[in-house]
Amino acid sequence: MAYPPGLILSDKAENMNCEKVIAGILGMLDVDYESPAQMNELVNKCSTMLSQLAEECSETLLQFGQDLLERSNESEDMKYKFQLILKSLAQRHQPGALELNIAALLSRNIRDKEAYIDLIETFKSSRAIPALIHAIKTDNSVGEDEGLVRYKAIEALCSVGTKEVASIIIPYVKDSVYRVRGAAINFLRKFDISEAAPVIAEWLSQEENPTNLEYCIAALVHWKQTGSLPELREILTSGWIYNDKDLQRSVSEGILALEAINKGL
Questions:
Q1: Which residue, 74, 49, 63, 54, is CA-closest to 100?
Q2: 3-state secondary structure 193-209
Q3: What are the pLDDT digits (tens) for 16-66?
Q4: DSSP-assigned letters across all residues of 246-258
Q5: CA proximity to 59, closest of 27, 119, 100
Q6: Sign of CA dihedral 207, 213, 217, 223
Q7: Burial group, residue 64, by CB count within 10 angstroms (0-12, 13-18, 19+)
Q8: Name one Pfam family in it (predicted).
Q9: Dihedral sign of CA atoms 104, 140, 125, 115 in order
């Protein structure tokens, strides 16, 4: 790959001026582009170049990230640059990178929190839990992205969370967004939070997403909630279940499993 004049990469790290090189790479984004595809190509190129910087530049890279976070509300370009820097820092496992990522999640200037939640999983650190919970509680996304932050944050908690946060997740079994409900049920199943069983049982008849209904049934069988049998039998006779053979099979199997539990088999 050909690089712009003046950019010195890792094989000459001992002689390079890290600040100048990083500024040069980021400056490549300060151009007009004809299409999103062209912009994506340029972003990927800059990302590759940042990843090839010598280890000696990591501290300077972190300083750039801190500055860009403070200026992230100035323009979309600043946000793009900050995300590139943060991604590079995460790949390097640079000390301070996780704290910078957490700061982005907590910042009022940052709106697209989902990008930073994705990076949180790179660190797999429980130190991110408070920031993820904050993201869940403050998410007010609407439109096509409604619930996306809540969904991604709960998914991330499956990787870095503990059952101690279960009481916060349980109410999201009834979230207005189907993918959030699904993520919440999966989290509760993973950490075996049986206290969630009554909430899931209560929600069962209101769940209209086929995949989530299967999640609910699996959870109720897992926690041996035989009290849900009458409701499941009623669900089995409903029109939308009857017309979906795969879902009909899942509901039938759930009923059989709970009946077996009821009989002590």
A1: 63
A2: CHHHHHHHHHHHHHCCC
A3: 589 999 999 999 988 887 788 888 898 899 999 999 998 899 999 999 999
A4: HHHHHHHHHHHHH
A5: 100
A6: negative
A7: buried
A8: HEAT_2
A9: negative
